[in-house]
Structure formats: C-alpha cells, structure tokens
Amino acid sequence: MLYGFSKDSVARIWRAVLAVERYLLAGRAARSGKERTRRPPRTYRRFALSAQLDAGSSAAVEWDDGSAGTVYTPNTNAYGLEGETGEAYPAVDSAGRIQWRVSQNPGQGVYKGSLAADATSTGSVNVTITIDGMSRTVAAQLRADPGTNKKWSSGATCYVGHFRGSWEIISITECPASAT
Fold first, then answer.
1. Where are the domains of the chain?
2. What's the pTM value of the predicted model, to 2 decimals?
3. CB neighbours (10 Å) of residue 58?
4. Nearest Cα to Cα of residue 49 among 79, 90, 92
5. Do domains 40-107 and 110-178 have the same CATH topology?
C-alpha cells in the first residue's frame, strides 16, 4: 500500500496516467502532422558531467554505461561542475525529439572552497573548489569589504553558492588580515 492507497487503487491511477499521456501525445502528433508519437521510455539515467552545466542550458555528459550524451535543463535552477553526477529523464521537445532533461541536480547548493588570491575589495574573485579530488576554479562575487587596510588572505576558507547562473561568496570563515 502506497500512502494509504490499495493495490487496486494504485493500478487504476497508473492506468489513468498512461491514458492521459497517450491522449496528450496523440494530440501533439495530430498538431505536428505526424501519424503517431512514441511515448518516451519511463526510465532515468545516471550521468557524470563532462563539462560545466549552467542554468537554462545543456552540457555534455558520460552516461553510467560509458557512452557520451547531452543533458538539458530548460529551467534556471539546475547547474553543476565537471565531474559531478546527476540523473536525467527523457522528454519530448517542441520538435518532437526525445531529449534528456536533468531531474536530479548534479550540483550542490553550497560548496566549500578557498580564495585563490588575496582580495582587498568587493567584486569578482577566484575560488578553488575540490570535487572528487579534482580542483576547479570559479569566479564568485565577493560582497563583503574586508575594511580599510585589510584583506581577505589567499587560501582563506569560504563557502560559495550557485544562484541562477552566478556564483556568490556566502561566507568567509577567517578574519581579515592586515594588507600591509
């Protein structure tokens, strides 16, 4: 029993979902002039990013079987760095082709990293992040000024977050040092 539904109720719901999918796909096929549209397979595939995935774009991936492919994220909430893993599902795009869309975000909400160089003012700074033993550098916005004649030292531990295509430094765990 799933969430209070009996086995028969779950079966009826499942048949109704499949009937609605067939109806919607038949309507799309009729609008596009095609005879019949194949329903995408009901499956999910694990992948590892081969390139950075930015919000609202696509990226090259290596599927769990070792083959290469591409995943898409039409929304602006999925992202990830090379080497991170996620999950994708098949969907029919506006041209009637099947494309793999991100269902489990490969990226994390917040990453621990370190400043790649001294920072004496606000603005864009490089932060080094390590994922699965591989270091990457991302340009993140620093919003906290260290103060007059102060600096954030190179190597200082910080936490960065990814928000709709841009990186922001959320916190620096060390105190500013003298800039002289």
1. 1-39, 40-107, 110-178
2. 0.59
3. 17
4. 79
5. yes
Phi/psi at 142 (5° precision): -100, 120
The string of pLDDT tens digits covering residues 15-34 is 888 877 777 666 655 555 55
Which residues, in sequence order, are CB contacts of 61 under 8 Å at separation 6+? 47, 48, 49, 50, 68, 69, 70, 71, 88
Query: Which superfamily does 40-107 belong to?
Result: Nucleic acid-binding proteins (2.40.50.140)
Q: Which residue has the tokens 């109704």?
A: 16
| CA gap 107, 86 in Å, rounded | 8
CATH fold, domain 110-178, is: OB fold (Dihydrolipoamide Acetyltransferase, E2P) (2.40.50)
Q: For residue 156, what is the DSSP state?
A: -
- Give per-residue pLDDT as tens, 63-83: 988 999 999 987 766 778 888
Q: What is the CA 29 to chain-centroid distance, rounded? A: 31
Which residue type, as a one-letter code, is found at position 96?
Answer: G
Has residue 179 got a pLDDT over 50? Answer: yes
